[in-house]
Design brief:
By secondary structure, this protein is an alpha/beta fold. The protein has helices at residues 2-10, 62-65, 70-83, 105-118, 136-139, 148-154, 158-161, 182-186, 189-201, 219-224, 241-249; strands at 25-26, 93-98, 123-128, 163-164, 170-173, 205-210, 229-235, 256-262, 270-273, 280-281. The relative contact order is 0.24. The protein has one domain: P-loop containing nucleotide triphosphate hydrolases (Rossmann fold). The longest helix is centred in the first third of the chain and has 14 residues, at 70-83. The radius of gyration is 17 Å and the shape is globular. β4 and β5 form a beta hairpin.
Length: 282
């Protein structure tokens, strides 16, 4: 953790989680990926008419309901820095986790995915890996199953677990039917093969893995080995600093590309780069 702590100190952001000002630098990013044409398959169709604001927390899904808002623009900056890193190719498999529950991880994942989908050339897929308390299917209004557990435990096919959403160019693999052994099935070769297959099959899109909080589950540590990059979400003013640092230490430091600071009222208030120590003022 020495290098990460040095970066945080240099950037003047030593995880002062009591700051709710909403101002500060936007996220930085690095590490690799590629972009080539996709192979198409048939997937279930979404309900027509777009997201229902009564079900989709319209005041929190800024990227969909208020794309011109300051909150949505900050998420767009995160997307842009993922797309155009200073060094190397953009990562296409990105895990989003947090230290503790209720830190806005699934909201950030959904907002970021919508931001990607609004781009002219980007396609995006969310894989809901929080098998015990999933939220993505509710936010994007797709069925919970068939989903990831149905593929890993029940033999469902890959095309059957990929659901279209009301957001064009955004698809979802929901959590699926409840499982009694989430960490065990996520650590199988079948799970690793699924991520590798999706990355190879869909060379034109980004794959975001929404995972449980790292202090409550061991799933994120299992999944960290399957992805190219990790974004770590922290709830400003609520999460203990030592809890955050323990969570960061449990993950491969070279894959952590950013810490995003949330607060209770907004989806994203600001973020700071960890991987390369670079920042951008907004």
């Amino acid at each position: 953790m020495g290098k990460m702590s040095e970066v945080l100190r240099r950037s003047g952001r030593d995880l002062n989680l009591a700051d709710r000002s909403g101002s500060g630098p936007a996220p930085g990013a690095r590490v690799g990926g590629s972009a080539q044409p996709a192979h198409k398959i048939t997937m279930p169709m979404p309900a027509p008419g777009g997201l229902d604001p009564r079900l989709a927390e319209e005041h929190r899904l800024f990227s969909y309901f208020a794309p011109g808002s300051p909150e949505a623009k900050r998420i767009d900056i995160l997307r842009s820095q993922l797309l155009f890193p200073f060094h190397g190719e953009p990562p296409r498999t990105i895990m989003i986790t947090s230290a503790a529950p209720q830190e806005g991880r699934s909201l950030l994942t959904t907002n970021l995915a919508i931001s990607f989908a609004r781009g002219l050339q980007q396609f995006v897929m969310i894989m809901d890996c929080h098998l015990t308390d999933p939220a993505i299917h509710q936010l994007l209004q797709v069925p919970r199953h068939p989903g990831l557990t149905d593929f890993l435990e029940r033999g469902a096919s890959v095309p059957s677990i990929i659901h279209r959403t009301p957001v064009e160019k955004l698809t979802v693999i929901p959590a699926g039917n409840p499982s009694q052994r989430p960490a065990e099935i996520l650590s199988t070769d079948k799970m690793a093969g699924l991520v590798a297959e999706l990355r190879a099959r869909y060379r034109d899109r980004f794959i975001l893995l929404d995972t449980p909080p790292i202090q409550a589950f061991d799933d994120p540590q299992v999944l960290a080995r399957l992805v190219e990059a990790i974004i770590f979400v922290v709830l400003t003013g609520e999460t203990d600093r030592e809890l955050v640092l323990r969570g960061l230490r449990a993950l491969p430091e070279e894959k952590i590309i950013g810490i995003v600071l949330n607060d209770a009222e907004n989806a994203v208030v600001d973020a700071t780069a960890v991987g390369g120590g670079s920042e951008m003022e907004v």
